[in-house]
Amino acid sequence: MLIQPTRSTPKNLSQALILIVEDEHEIAAILEAYLERSGLRTVHAPDGHSALTLHQSLKPDLILLDIQLPGMDGWQVLNEIRHKSDTPTIMLTALDQDVDKLMGLRIGADDYIVKPFNPAEVVARVQAVLRRTRVQTVDTRQVIRVGDFQIDLESHEACVFKDGQAITLDITLTEFKLLECMMRTPNRAFSRGELLEACLPEGDSLERTVDSHISKLRKKIEQLGIEGVPTSVRGIGYRFGNRS
Fold first, then answer.
1. Fewest Cβ atoms nearer than 10 Å: which of 14, 116, 191, 211?
2. Alpha carbon of residue 81 to chain centroid
């Protein structure tokens, strides 16, 4: 039986995606339960190779990485990740010698937790690292994530997370700009005029043009089984609206 964690995730950290790299399924399940009860999302990789694949495709906000993995160990996984990104990483291991901790920190680990551990403490450490790194991570990667939606401002790609998988949205540049504008302040209702000025190219001067682009964007999102995004706000315009 799992004990309900007493700490809750701060609102600005909710919906962060945590990649758990752990070959012991019971430990992974406990971590998943505690993290998800704290408002975080999780995905599990049982070995190093699948961890690298998931890291590349899902771009998690933080990695909980076991060291003693089958095949490729945690040191090798972290080394590979650090060649490509600065995703915050917390090492989980039964190795408690100072030399092991120093090795992890030298390679680029952000924290180090020794087994056996208190799952509630792991959640607290995850939240602390996320708070410390979230601003610089967003600035560096230029990624905006709200609910199940994520947009990458560098690659101009938008995706939706369903069942732990990232599904790319096939949208136009204008549709991407509309998503970006609304996702930056997802609770705000934007008038058609505001969206027209911020997102549409010169020459598209009619407010009904916004309705057309929103309708096409909404239909593409509905194909993934998500209704009402963006949300219509009567008498005003539109709001992003995804709060899952």
1. 116
2. 16
What ranges do the domains of the chain cover?
11-141, 145-239
Answer CATH for 11-141 from 3.40.50.2300, 2.40.160.20, 3.30.450.20, 3.40.50.620: 3.40.50.2300
The DSSP letter of residue 8 is: -
pLDDT reported for residue 173: 87
CATH 1.10.10.10 matches 145-239: yes
Q: How far apart are CA 84 and CA 197, in angstroms?
A: 37
Buried b (16+ CB within 10 A) or exposed e, 168-202: ebebeebbbbbbbbbbeebeebbebebbbeebbee
Query: Per-residue pLDDT tens for 65-80?
Result: 999 898 899 989 998 8
pTM: 0.53
